[in-house]
Amino acid sequence: MKKKLIYFIKVVVVIILLAIITITGAYLWPISKLQPPKSFGKTIIENVNIIDVKTGTVAKHQFVLIEHTRITKIDSTKITPSDDNLIIDGTDKYLMPGLWDMHTHSNQHSEWLHHPLYIANGVTGVRDMSGQLNKKDSYWVGSKERLQWNKDVGNNKRVTPRYVLQSSYQMDGEKAIPEESPNFFKLQNPSQVDSLLQFYKNEQVDFIKVYQQLPKDTYKVLAKKAPEYGLHLAGHKPMFLSLEEAVNLGQKSFEHGRIFMYECFPEADSLKNPTNWKAYFSKSKAKIVQQFDSVQAKELMYLMHQKSTYWTPTLQTLKFEANAHIENFTNNENLKYVTSVRKKLWWKFDTDYNKEKNIEREGISVSEQFFEASKQQVAMANKMGVPIMAGTDVTDSYVFAGFSLHDELYELTRSGLSNLEALQSATITPAKFSNIEEDYGFIGIGKKADLVVLNKNPLEDIRNTKEIHGVLLNGVYYNKEKLTELKNFTETAASSFHMNVKALISLVNSPLIRVQFAD
C-alpha cells in the first residue's frame, strides 16, 4: 500500500511538473509578427469612382495620385506613371475614406488578435476607450503603447490602425481602482482632480474616460478643469447627475445606447442615488422603456446639438443582449478569430446570463425592448442634429474587431440614418470630433491616404462596405491577397495554445481586470 501511494505521488508530481513546463513554455514562446506590404514613392489608382462622403455624390472615372502618404492629385485624365510606381486598377471600383471605429478596447495582444482584422475590414482608425494607471498593465494598453503603434504606422513597421485619440483609464470612483494605486486615481474628492489631470497630461492622453459611479462633486470639478490641461471628458454619463448637467459641463462624447432611457422616464431621479441605483435599475428596466418620455428626450437631444456633443450608440452591445438566446446569432462565423480563453471565461458567462434573462419571459424580452428603443432614439437624435459616431465596443461579447463596424453601420441605417449618414458616422464625423479633419475624413488633395477600394457602391447599399477589394493605410496598399493573409494570421493566433496561455495569464495578472470583475 505504501509503495502504491509513493508511486501515485510521483505520478502526480511528474504531471504537475510537465504542466508547469508546458504552460511556462507556451507563455514564453515567441509569436510571429506580420509584416506590412512594401511602400512605394508613388501610387496611382486608375479609373476609380470616388465617393464624396460630404455630399453623397460619386465622381466617376477618376485618377488618383498618392505620393508617399498623401493624395497629391485627383484628375479625370490619366496620370502618366514613372518607374517604381504602384498601379491599382480601379475600373468599376469605388474609393471611400478609411473607416473609423470610435469605441474600441485594445489590449496587450491586439497586435495579433485585433489589428489585422481592423485593416482587413477597411478600419484604418480607432478610438481606444481604455488605458492604464501609473504602471504598465499585463492586459490593458496605455498611451505609450498606442503612440508607439502610431509611429510604427508612419514608418511602415507595423500592421495596425491609427489610434486617433488617447484615453485615460476609466474613472469610476474608488472601487474601480486597485488599493495599491496612488489615491488621486480614486477621485474620492475634488482635491485630487489636479493631480489626476497633470498625470494624464504628462502621459500625452487626450481625454479622461469617465464612467458611471464617479462622484457628482468630483465630476463637476473634473469637467471644469480638464480643458485647462488640454483634455476633455468622454465616456459614460455618470449616474449621479443628469445628462443635462453633463452636457452643459462640456463632456464631449457619450457612449452607448441607453443614455436617454436613463433620463427620460418619471422616476429617473431614482437612478441618481449612489446607494441603491443598481438595485433600482435591475428591477425597473421594463418601466424605463415603457414610460419613456420622447418630449424630454428631444429637449436633451437639441441641447446636445447646440453644444456639439457627440453620441456613440454602440448598438452592437445591445444587439448582443437582445439576441443572446438565438442560436443563429451566437453561432457566428467570426468566433474563429477569438481566443478560447475569452470565449469560455468571458463571453460564455455573458451569453448564458443574457440568454437566461431573455427566455425566462414570454414575448419580447426587456433586452429586446431596449435594443429597439435605442434604435428609435438614434433616429430621433439624428433628426435633432446630434452628431453620431460609429463605434462597436470591441472587445465586448460578440463584438468582432473590424467585422462589427460593418454591422454597426447597417444597424444605424436600420435606425433611420441614410447610407450617406452612416458612412459619415465612420469617416468625416469622427475626423471633426478629433479635430483632424484637415488630414482625414474625406477624399481630397492633401489628405492622408487612408482609403478603401470597394467592389460595390455603399451609397446604394450600406452592406457594400464589406465588399473590400483593397485598403490603403498611410499610402501603403494592402491588396486582396494581403487582406486574406491578415485574417488567416489572426485565426491561427487565436486558436494557438501559446496565445491562449498568454491571454489567460495576462488577465489573471492584471490588477485592473481584477477590480473590474470584483465591482
3D architecture notes:
The chain crosses the membrane at residues 7-29. Keywords: Membrane, Transmembrane, Transmembrane helix. This is Amidohydrolase family protein. The chain is built from 19 helices and 15 strands. By secondary structure, it is α/β, with parallel strands linked by helices. Strands 1, 2, 3, 4, 5, 13, 14 and 15 form an eight-stranded mixed β-sheet that branches. It has a four-stranded parallel β-sheet with strand order 9-10-11-12, with helices on one face. A hairpin with a 2-residue loop joins strand 14 (468-473) and strand 15. The model has no long low-confidence stretch (mean pLDDT 93).
Alpha-carbon distance between the termini? 49 Å
Coarse structural class:
alpha/beta
**Compute the gyration radius: what is it?**
24 Å
Number of strands: 15
Q: Assign an overall shape.
A: globular
Taking pLDDT < 50 over at least 5 consecutive residues as the criterion, the unreliable ranges are none
Largest β sheet strand count, sense and barrel closure: 8 strands, mixed
Q: What's the number of helices?
A: 19
What is the mean predicted local confidence, pLDDT?
A: 93
Strand content: 5-15%
Range of helix content: 40-55%
